[in-house]
Amino acid sequence: MPSANGTREITYVEAVREALTQAMQADERVFLIGEDIGVYGGAFGVSAGMHAQFGDQRVIDTPISEAAIVGACVGSALTGMRPVGEIQFMDFITLGMEQLVLQAAKVRFMFGGKASVPMVLRTPGGSGTGAAAQHSESLETWFTHVPGLKVVMPSSPYDAKGLLLAAIADENPVIFVEHKLLYKISGPVPEEPYTIPLGQPNIVRSGQHLTVVATSIMVQRAKQAAEELAKEGIELEIVDPRTLNPLDDTLMIQSVMKTGKALIVHESVKTSGYGAELAARIVESEAFDYLDAPVRRLAGLDIPIPYNRNLEYHAVPQVENIVAEARKLVRGEY
Amino acid sequence: MAKTKNSKTSPVAAASTLSDAQLHEMLYTMMVIRRFEEKALELYSLGKVHGTMHLSIGQEATAVGASAALTQQDYLLNTHRGHGHCLAWGSQADLMMAEFMGKETGYCRGRGGSMHIANVDANNLGANGIVAGGLPISVGVGLSIKSRNTEQVVMVVFGDGASNEGAFHESLNMASIWNLPVIFLCENNQYAMSMPVEKSMRVERISERAAAYGMYGVTVDGNDPQAVFAAVLRARQQAVAGHGPTLIECNTYRYMGHSKSDRQAYRTREEVKAWMDKDPIERLAGNLGLKESAKEALFKKAEAEIAEAVSFAEASPEPDPADIMEGVYA
Ligand SMILES: Cc1ncc(C[n+]2csc(CCOP(=O)(O)OP(=O)(O)O)c2C)c(N)n1
Questions:
Q1: Predicted ipTM of the assembly
Q2: What are phi and psi of A135, to 5 degrees?
Q3: What is the per-residue pLDDT across B278-296, written as a single tens digit (0 to 9) for each?
């Protein structure tokens, strides 16, 4: 795996596009399918130019039919292709849920391991664009609850490319959640193809006072919070699971044993959210004896995302919330 | 007109022709809708309205014609491109504008925005951000009307693209087998985002799909409010008489892109121009023999009405973040 150091900078959206392009160049079985991904280039511009490059047969525009898009991925994956489906907004996976949960996730097991469904379903999730309740969902936790699915949430351009190439190469159905607000961020990304193994977390930043486990855009916010707190002498260690399921929790647990404190940050709502899983993993591990504060969760409020800008801002964790919560934890105020 | 609550034209019993006065009223409402959306777009460009914006400029005749054929007791379910329907249904421009700006005084207290705007007091059960999301709900509303045994109907508006969703097919079938008083109003503006109708279905007309469910289907000129009015009125009479649902396809066109970020690489300027030449407002104004000056005066009046709505919205308070948890549960 090439490192992110000393390479050119591209945006997250370009990193996703580059991964798709390289996967399609390397393997004829890989194709894209989804709504408005052709001439339009995708609602967020992810596949811009790819229709011209690869043609109708490999960049397939569909009618508005999410169940059929997911099903088409399942069927083609079962029979030798490597489909990458796009669901235009994560919210609309709800319409393809049966094909994803009851079919894609279960086929291999039900068939006694004799078939596999190597498909990727990419989708932009998250709030922050003023698109209100039906276009701002963070539903990733749902999918982690379904055995048979893998769930990936890249937090940087570098991770987006490497994880997507790994997802396409993977023999299982993978839900690949991109964050709308991350599309424009830039970072170093090597030009050559590389993969980041699914299930391998990343220590984004080292520090000794508190372990912050964050996903997707919250990793970026945690990094900003860490910079602010560093001025006060508080050093955060940030762990990004990158792949929510399967999750290798070793790094996270070791980190908590080092710092003795854990703060979990995610955008999806708190109740029964992914943070509950992470917290449980920490307290049922050997890290329990090292904890000198309760494990805390900072998550989206238990509400649909409001339209109003200010309400929307307050509905999910922001940098200042992470700063405040981390400070309290480190100062032993819990 | 758009300012008065529930000011829809009442249906002319059994008549499919409209009086001159009614046609003038419809023309004015179309102008209000056009100016409302143009202003909304301007506010969006200024950053005063955020999120996304789906304009129905060019499609006003369908909204006005359809609403005019229904009564204040009927129900409306609407789409993401539903500003016109919302206004034609008698919603107030000022409360709508306040919602677009995310203000507490807006129809949904700034929580829903333009894509989710509802006017529940007027039986407008809301716009929907989910393509075809309103259709299954219309089945439930139809069922409820049937159980309550009232003379109401529900009209559910959706686009051509929505007719490819499973929800469309399940809903038509169910409404049909149970003879529910549902009017399925498809606004065929020729594109679902970038997908042209010809590429998304093998049938020529969406109304043909009605046959598969044993339902009456008809295609009308969606730029002619009278044609839309007549079709919806007929559908209403059928529904109230217990003969079940109707699928009405209204052929029309959106002048603007799907949303603000649309570069419109999927269609030509010539095509857009050709449809603009069939502009519903110009056409009706012409048919009514309106002089250029009279037309301008009406547009000015509409503009003034919208300007007032904007002033109201701008002066309105923002929601208080302390209330953020409200409204999730009853
Ligand atoms: C279930 C679902 N899939 C996709 C979208 C994204 N989307 C919003 S509007 C739209 C096009 C809808 O086309 P049509 O139904 O013809 O209505 P129009 O926009 O033309 O009025 C798409 C693809 C969505 N909102 N919901």
A1: 0.94
A2: -130, 25
A3: 999 999 999 999 999 999 9
